[in-house]
Amino acid sequence: MNVLITGAAGGLGRAFAAECGRRGYSLFLTDINREGLLCLQRGLERQFNITVTTKACDLTNAESVNDMLELIDRHSIRFDMLLNIAGLDFEGSFMGREREKIIEIVTLNNAATLRITHAVIQRRRKGRCFTVVFVSSLASMFPMPLKATYAASKRFLLDFATSLRQELKEQNVNVLALCPGGMVTTRESMEGIAAQGFWGEVTTNPLETVARKTLDRALDGKGLYVPGSLNRTLSFLGKLIPRSIVAAVVYWRWNRAQNRWLNPAKE
Amino acid sequence: MKTAVITGATSGIGFETASLLARKGFRVLGIGHSEENCLKAQERILSENPDAKIAYFWGDLMQQREVLCLSRDVAAYLSENCDGELNVLINNAGCVRSWYATTDEGYEQQFALNHLAGFYLTHGLLPFLKKTKGRIIITGSKSHKGIKVRWGDVMLSRGYNPLIAYKQSKLCNVLFAKGINDRYAAEGVRAYVVDPGLVNTDIGNKKTGTLVKLIWALRKLQGVPPTVPAKTYAFLCEQEKAPEGLCYYLCRETTYSKQVTSENASRLFALSERLCGICYGREAAV
Ligand SMILES: NC(=O)c1ccc[n+]([C@@H]2O[C@H](COP(=O)([O-])OP(=O)(O)OC[C@H]3O[C@@H](n4cnc5c(N)ncnc54)[C@H](OP(=O)(O)O)[C@@H]3O)[C@@H](O)[C@H]2O)c1
Fold it and tell me: Which residues of A touch B99 (CB under 8 A)?
C-alpha cells in the first residue's frame, strides 16, 4: 500500500504516519517543515522498517507542488491512498485578524487541498482501489463565530468530500471525511484545550485512536467519521437546533474560553 | 574537582540535587529545557552559594537532534575544562502526559523523554565516564513495579493509557541501569536508579489536562520536599567505593520489579539502540 500524507510532520500527521507504519505501508510524506519530515522519516524507519520517502513542499505554491509531482513521476511512484492532513487554524475574530492570515486559511485548507487531491488521484495505482481522506472538523457541523473562516473552510471540505465520493464511487475510489473534535497535537492546542476547561477536554479525541479508526473506516468504504460518542451527539444536536441559536451559544462559549486563554491573570 | 552532569536541573528533584552537589564541591553542569529556566536556576544556586561551580546547557531532550547537540556541547566543555573527565551523570529529566503525544521522530513523549533521552545522552558521555570509572544515576520510581514492557508496541499506540506509559518508562529506567552494569561494571562504570518517593514538585502540572492537574495538586501535598531525595543522589556520588546495589531509596538499597532481568535489559538495549540510531560499544573516542 503506497500512501501519501500531507502535513505529515504535525501532530495528527505523525499519528497517521505511525499508524500506517504499524501496518507496514510504504509512505510518501510531505510537509512545509523539512527538518520535521527528516526526523519523522528516521523515526518511522527505525520503528517499523518500512520505506519512507519525504519531500518538503509548500502546498499553496503551484510551483512547489509541481516540483514534488516531478519527483514522484521521475521515480514512477503511484499511490493507493491520500491522507489530506495539512490544514491551518487561527483563533480570533474576523476583524481582529490580519487579512493575509485569513486568506491563508482558505488557501491551504481548500485551494491547496484540491490541487494536491486532483494531482494524486491522477497518480493512483492502476487496477487497485484508491482511498482519499479529508480532515474536516467537528467545527464544520456548526456555525462558529470567532472561528468563522476556519469552520467554513472545514464545511467546504465536508461538502466537497460528500460530492466527490459520489462522483468517484464507480471508479473504485472511496472518499472519507474525518470530523474530529479537538485533538492534542501541538503545545498550543494542549493549552487551548485546557483553557476551554471541561467541554474542551471531553470533546477531545485521542490522536492514536482517531488515526487507527479513520484508516479502518476509510478502507471499509465508509464516508464520514465523527470520533467520540459525545461528538456524534453534538453533531446530531447541531442539526436539530436552529443555526442562529447554535451560533449564539458557540459565540458565548468561545468568547469566554478565549478571554480565559488570552488573559489567564484575571482568574 | 569532581564533575556531575544533571538533566532536568531547573526545578524539582534535579534542581535540589544540582544545588546540593554544588555545595558539596562538585562542578555541576545542569541541563534544562529553556534558556529562561536555566538562567533562573543558575542565579538561584549562585545567590545561595556564590562559590558554586555551575554551568547550564539547554535544549529539548525529547527531540533526538537536540539531545545530540547537547551531548556534543557538554562533551566539548568537558574536554576543555575537565580534562575530558566526568564523574557522575544524572538522567533525571522527566514528564507526565495526559494524552498520547509524539516527538518529532513520532515517538511517544514519555518514553522518549523519560527513557530514550537518557539512553542517548549516556551514549555520548560514556567515554568521559569511563575515564573516572564514573557513575550513572537515573531517576526512577516505585511505580515501575507491577507491569511489563509491551515489546510489540513500546509507544503504546494501541489502547494508550498515560499512566501505563509513565510506569513503563520508569521500568525502562531500571532495565537501562541493569543493562549498563551488565556491560560496563567490569570497566568500573556503574549505574543506579534512585526512587525519590513521592515528592512535592510541579511535574504533574506541566502540559497535562485538568484531571491530572487536579489529582497531582492533591497528591503532591503528601510528598516530601525535593531536598529529601537529593540526599540519596549525593550519597551515591560520594561513596568512595562504588555501592553494589541497583535501586536506592532514602540512601538505602531497595527492591525492584522481577521484570528486571539481564534478558529484558538486553532486549531494551537493542531496541533503544535502533530507535536512537546508535551502537553502544562504538562510542566516539575522547
Ligand atoms: N515528583 C515525584 O513525586 C516523582 C516521583 C517519582 C519519580 N519522579 C521523577 O523525577 C524526575 C524529576 O521530576 P520532578 O518531580 O523533579 O519534576 P519537575 O520539577 O517537573 O522537573 C523536571 C525537569 O525536567 C525538565 N524537562 C522537562 N521536559 C523537558 C524536555 N523536553 N527537555 C529538557 N528538559 C525537560 C524540566 O524543565 P522545565 O521545568 O523547564 O520544563 C525540569 O527541570 C522525573 O524523571 C520524574 O519521573 C518524580
Answer: 184, 190, 204, 206-207
